Amino acid sequence: MTRILLLGGTGDALRIARQLDSTHVYSLAGLGKVPDDLACAVRVGGFGGSEGMAQYIADERISMVIDATHPYAAQISANAAHASRAAHVPCWALRRPAWQPQAGDDWRMVGNWNELTAALAPFRKPLFTLGREPLAHLDEIPVHQFWTVRCLDPHQDATRARIIATRGPFTLEGERALFALQAFDVVVSKNSGGGATEAKLEVARERRLPVVMLRRPDLPAVDREFDSVDDLLDALRVLA
């Protein structure tokens, strides 16, 4: 019998977890809300790197790893691929397609925080949708800028920053209202793909705002890749 270790933390991963029975394990890093309505076991916390994950796979008699983490969780994905090889079990990955620029988009691609801040230099009111990373840089905000940072983590506002602690999905109407109220002049985003947070890009397009887009990291090769939850679930049903 196949026993799955599902690495998650995304809405896509939760969809997969809802299809798993008590044989399987859904693993979360511990950020955000921990679901309490799943039939599968839920594990919260890290493994101690790839070696720790490999040991967990062996100890728990895991026979397959599914990496359904965020496209920017490169270290976790690398650990999953390495641990699976070390434990001699297959590793599947859900790799959702990246967003693609459309007519009228003004995307400025960057590869790291230094490139990002350089690209933001001409602007005054950026909206950050990168997660928690900007919280570590609130003491570096240029004097001509006021940041709005949207992330999961509650955090007190800074002298020149507003923190919005919330979770997607975000609607088009809600994003339009936020942009109109705050008068952002640039959006800062990861190229996460999927529909849960895409509305901000449509509003940026409508308002002709530039988007500073953080490039996706390189992810490791795995035994099978899927670009949709449905395709992955169909493949699991074949195994059952």
Structure at a glance:
It is an enzyme of class 1 (oxidoreductase). Helix 1 links the parallel strand 1 and strand 2.
Topology:
Layout lengths: L3 E4 L3 H7 L7 E4 L12 E4 L4 H11 L4 E4 L6 H14 L3 E4 L12 E4 L2 H8 L5 E4 L17 E5 L9 E5 L6 H11 L3 E5 L8 H8 L4 E4 L9 E3 L2 H11 L1
Parallel strand pairs: 1-2, 1-4, 2-3, 4-5, 5-12, 6-11, 7-8, 7-10, 8-9, 10-11
Can you walk through the features of this model?
This protein is an alpha/beta fold and 240 residues long. It has 7 helices and 12 strands. The protein has a 6-stranded parallel β-sheet, sandwiched between helices. Helix 6 links the parallel strand 10 (186-190) and strand 11. It starts with a strand and ends with a helix. InterPro entries: Precorrin-6x_reduct.
